[in-house]
């Protein structure tokens, strides 16, 4: 397939997904990339096909500055998102929704013809009571999980996209609804945000070495992951094809037995209310970063049907969920490149996360 030269702007390019996408776009010699983030990586270098543009989406002039970066580009990919409250509980919502508003404003003003938004599996919410769990495709109703701020904000962002599409039908809008994204280089950040003293490094190393015979897991847990490099390839393919609408991107789904086997253990089913109560207590004691909102989202998330990605993008994951989980475990048990004394983030308001 031959492609015309084009310019793609990636907002949030220094994050986990951004790294995978930049790798995929490097393979497309016809693509020039303008990488936008608040703090470009220390080793970031501009080149003939990649330039870095420092920009804070919460700055008063963010939309104006981003408009200038977007001028002349054929597509923009919006990846910037704050995952979990840290300190000021209002900050993530400002970054996520105000930042999205700035990207939409700049996209309109710069006349960009294709917008790709990184959405999430979380927009599907829990299945209705009494309805059997089954893989869901992109036609499944968008419904926020009431206990998860992350889910509610992703749905709110998609509602902003709905309004944008109605006002600008000439712009192709792609919503990439991804499972939890894994990359070894992001493990340090995940450890700081979601774990903490309640999950000591010695336990993670024991899990990695297969020295934990039994692994307690919530009853009925089903997990899907996607490696950042695979997700980057899917986004790049959506850019190539100017795909519109939503597309699910995930590897296969694993139950408790397969998940425990990643660490060479046997699963020990634990009732969900027990796990939730313990997690909530540890979070309130500042020894665990994960909130009950994240737990609720994890146990209620539907399995994604990725048929559209296979059919219309020619995409399939190179890394399955078991391998992605092992990559994450190995990285979590290894040294943190940013290691040092750090407090766990202060508890957020009830139901956040």
TrEMBL record:
Residues 8-249 form the NAD-dependent epimerase/dehydratase domain. It holds the Pfam family Epimerase. Residues 332-353 are annotated as: Disordered. SUPFAM superfamilies: NAD(P)-binding Rossmann-fold domains (SSF51735). Gene3D superfamilies: NAD(P)-binding Rossmann-like Domain. PANTHER family: NAD(P)-BINDING DOMAIN-CONTAINING PROTEIN-RELATED, PROTEIN YEEZ. This is NAD-dependent epimerase/dehydratase family protein. It comes from Pseudonocardia lutea.
